[in-house]
Write a structure and sequence with these properties.
The protein has 278 residues and is an alpha/beta fold. The chain is built from 7 helices and 15 strands. Bound molecules: manganese (II) ion.
Length: 278
């Protein structure tokens, strides 16, 4: 019963169809706060830091009426994970942004919960960067991550944002399977020669009317596939940080200032499920 009520509360935070935007949807930041500041500036947001480095606070003022939507994977791999969280948390709190969790955020949340997680794929950098942070900030981050809706459904139902994507028949519902899809996409349950989970390109089978914007899989450029758009352009790997302006459907990117992490496999969409032709 408690579980059902919790899901109901979360569903209310997922279903934002009454919010028609306009929106600026932002891809996987992975601690690249400098590039995030540059992208927000390009999109017309004013970012202002106050306080001392150990007690930094940030205020972000959006262009009139606009809201940002973060596709998740705020943490790991990049140089300024706490600052990235400060920016996004302050915007969500001010009602000027939505955010959904990525698989990296969920893993970091498990670490904050004291669970035994392997500090791989850049989590070690997040942990190191949190070493000097005050306990109150960790507690705030933990609560922020715990409260994120697994996807957001926006603009009269015409737009959905989930970290790894979502199928149209999952919208308006929550289940373990839907959570897994939103965080990890379609996987085979096996690992590839790089030791990473084998993924399938679910979007080639997408036939929905709702436009789905997602991240998770670094691609060289954001390109529409059916009615879906992956905007993870691998900023932490020296690519770029990308946003989609909605409803304008304009893509805005800023280049990475550095290669913060070497990619273990080349950029690009995985193949479709066996038997499916792209
Ligand atoms: Mn990612």
């Amino acid at each position: 019963m408690t579980q059902t009520n919790t899901d109901g509360d979360e569903l209310a935070r997922c279903d934002r169809r009454s919010d028609s935007g306009p929106f600026d949807i932002i891809g996987d930041v992975h601690g690249c706060a400098g590039e995030l500041e540059a992208l927000l500036a390009r999109l017309g947001y004013h970012v202002r830091w106050t306080g001392t480095p150990s007690a930094a606070e940030v205020t972000v003022v959006p262009p009139r009426g606009r809201r940002a939507v973060f596709v998740g994977d705020l943490v790991d791999r990049g140089p300024r994970v706490p600052d990235t969280l400060r920016i996004v948390m302050s915007m969500v709190e001010a009602g000027t942004a939505y955010a959904v969790p990525g698989n990296h955020d969920v893993k970091f949340q498990r670490w904050l919960d004291g669970k035994d997680v392997k500090p791989s794929h850049g989590l070690d950098r997040t942990i190191a960067q949190f070493e000097p942070e005050p306990k109150a900030f960790r507690i705030a981050v933990r609560k922020f991550l715990k409260d994120l809706p697994i996807y957001v459904w926006l603009d009269g139902g015409g737009l959905a944002v989930a970290h790894a994507g979502i199928k149209e028949d999952m919208l308006g519902r929550i289940s373990g399977e839907i959570r897994r899809f939103c965080l990890y996409g379609e996987t085979s349950g096996e690992t590839d020669k790089f030791g990473l989970p084998i993924r399938y390109h679910w979007a080639v089978e997408y036939r929905g009317h709702t436009s789905v914007v997602y991240g998770h899989t670094p691609v060289p450029d954001a390109d529409w596939v059916n009615n879906t758009l992956c905007i993870d352009t691998g900023c932490c790997f020296g690519g770029k940080l990308t946003a989609l302006r909605w409803p304008e459907r304009e893509i805005v990117s800023v280049p990475a200032a550095d290669i913060y992490t070497m990619p273990v496999r080349p950029f690009g969409h995985p193949p479709p499920r066996p038997g499916v032709t792209a």
